[in-house]
Amino acid sequence: MLDRPRGVGIISAGLGNVGSVSRMVERAGGIPNIITSSSRDRRERLLILPGVGHYDAGMDALSRAGFNREFFLQHVEEGGYILGICLGMQLLCRESEEGERPGLGLISATVKKFRPRGPEGVEVKIPHMGWNSVTVNNQGSPFSASDETVRFYFVHSFYVQPDEGSNICCATASHGITFCAAFAANRIYGVQFHPEKSHRYGLSLLSNIISVVYDA
After folding, report:
1. Is this model's pTM higher than 0.85 or not?
2. What is the topology classification, in CATH, of domain 7-215?
3. Cα–Cα distance between 139 and 207 in angstroms, integer?
4. Is 100 a catalytic residue?
5. pLDDT tens digit string along 158-167?
6. Is 123 a catalytic residue?
7. How far apart (Å, rounded) are the C-alpha atoms in residues 29 and 106?
């Protein structure tokens, strides 16, 4: 089988450090292309939606640039993949306690705020910031099957809660509660952590995702 150019579209709508994501994608074997408008001809099979900041501001920024629900749905319907990072993961969901605007609604989940005390009364620091271990629940996910402890860098005050009965959460982490650190459903991936800040762990994850997209 002939090798296909491993183009990775990185959406730039003022929501995150696309430069860091772009550099990590390149190290992972992808060809990063910065996308600033939904009107361009898209040839990348993988789109990355990075994001930091407030939920409503994120949805407003996407709307101004034309990156609406239909844009992402069309990409998936045409056989493409999506990876949401941090706020980008949350924007793929239906709604958030952080804002009033509806999300993209591509994933059956809501976004919840960490409470200052966990279920057993243990004080929880908000935001959740720094390195944390991640438990992989589904070896069919883009995470590499390994007995090694997987660790990623987090910065967030809200977390994704998939709908009851949903089987999309493929990795969890703990911060006062056990929460969904990554999901995978219908060629749509989301990670709450920052792979571009997670050194070899983030590099391995992005390499695996690019391989899934282009070697399947």
Report:
1. yes
2. Rossmann fold (3.40.50)
3. 16
4. no
5. 999 999 888 8
6. no
7. 27
Amino acid at 168: I
pLDDT tens, position by position, 177-196: 999 999 999 899 999 999 99
* Catalytic residue from among 44, 128, 169, 196: 196
Choice among 44, 86, 156, 169 that is catalytic: 86
Query: CA quadruple 19, 193, 57, 31: dihedral positive or negative?
Result: positive
Contact 54/98 with Cβ under 8 angstroms?
Answer: yes
CA distances from 53 to 12, 146, 157 (A): 14, 33, 10
Give residues with Cβ within 8 angstroms of 120, minimum separation 6. none
pLDDT, one tens digit per residue, over 51-98 is 999 999 999 999 999 999 999 999 999 999 999 999 999 999 999 999
Amino acid at 62: L
Q: How far apart are the first and last CA of the chain?
A: 11
What is the H or E stretch that residue 214 is in?
A: helix 199-215
Alpha helices by DSSP H, 41-106: 55-64, 69-77, 87-91
For 145-185, what is the HEC assignment?
A: CCCCCEEEEEEECEEEEECCCCCCEEEEEEECEEEEEEEEE
